[in-house]
Amino acid sequence: MAALWMTGWLSLMLVMAVAGREAMRELNVFELMELRCLIGLVMLSPVIILSGGFATLRTTRLKQHAARNLIHYGAQLGWFFALTLIPIGQVVAIEFTMPIWTALLAATFLGERITLFKLVAIVLGLVGVVVIVRPDTGAINPGQLIALGAAVGFGISIALVKFLTRTEPTVSIIFWMLAVQSIAGLLPTLLLWTWPSAMAWGWIVLVALCGTFSHFCMARAMLYADATIVVPMDFLRVPLTATVGWLVYSERLDGFTVLGAALILAGNLLNLRPPQPRPLAVNASSQS
Predict the structure, then answer these.
(1) What backbone phi and psi angles, to 5 degrees, belong to 282?
(2) What are the angstrom distances between the C-alpha of 272 and each of 59, 226, 228, 237, 288?
């Protein structure tokens, strides 16, 4: 079930990357994020009603929701901005330093174990990312630093989502994400507001749809598996995004990308390996 929900996450995130880049040909990043949250709240309303109504959104953990979503808001701003500075595949590839932070936080604060197989899966995934990106030895593009900062923020955010899923329903997690982030971005949006064209509105709606329900898929996946299992599945987004960048923007897809994708897939398959059952201890006295 975790793998199925992560398939939804992957598909929606791929579409959002393209829609976000296209929307930011006209809009600033604050305006895009604000419209994404406000439209997302409207789209989420039917799900809220079907889940039991607005009473299900009551929470005693508002501080935790606020902290998680402010961190995620900063990371998402950086992610969208980086899309305008470096190739789309490279943004996502750099983002995948995220599992390091998620795994460490999940192990430290959530009590999740980092088994040998999980560790090898993360290492294979990160090696695959490095093979794809092949960082230059010269000056680092500012977009790469922004993408790396976003990755750290996403890692913290995902660990906090796992923490919240212990007591909070999925729809509540998504609602408070949109509500907190719409409040956080209201002032800069008003100061920098420009009216979107009809084409830009189409991209904005796609960003809102994908941004809202991708997180719904991620939160649902977290209900079925540890964060250290769910997050490495997301490594598949690297080769998939590189392929989209090649098809849509003619960004390079070469043998290194194929090799990196193979390493990432190997890591995911290894990570999905079911744990071996422990042998039952036999009491010698019972055999007498």
Answers:
(1) -105, 125
(2) 33, 11, 11, 16, 41
User: What digits encode the pLDDT tens for the residues 131-167?
Assistant: 776 665 455 678 878 988 898 898 888 878 877 878 8
Q: Please write down the HEC assignment for all residues of 164-194.
A: HCCCCCHHHHHHHHHHHHHHHCHHHHHHCCC
Phi/psi of residue 139, nearest 5 degrees: -65, 140
Task: State residue 288's pLDDT score.
Answer: 39
- pLDDT number for residue 227: 66
Q: What is the pLDDT of residues 6-45, one digit of tens each?
A: 888 889 989 999 999 999 999 999 999 999 999 989 998 9
**How far lies 149's CA from each of 1, 77, 125, 185, in Å?**
31, 10, 19, 19
Helix (H) or strand (E) holding 247: helix 237-249
Structure-block tokens of residue 67: 């902290």
State if pTM tops 0.90: no
Q: Where are the domains of the chain?
A: 2-272
Cα separation values, 151 from 16, 93, 154, Å: 17, 10, 5
Residue 141, burial from CB neighbour count under 10 angstroms (0-12, 13-18, 19+)? middle
- In 3D, which of 10, 9, 18 has the Cα closest to residue 203? 18
Q: What are phi and psi of 27, to 5 degrees?
A: -105, 155
- Distance between CA atoms of residues 217 and 224, nearest Å: 11
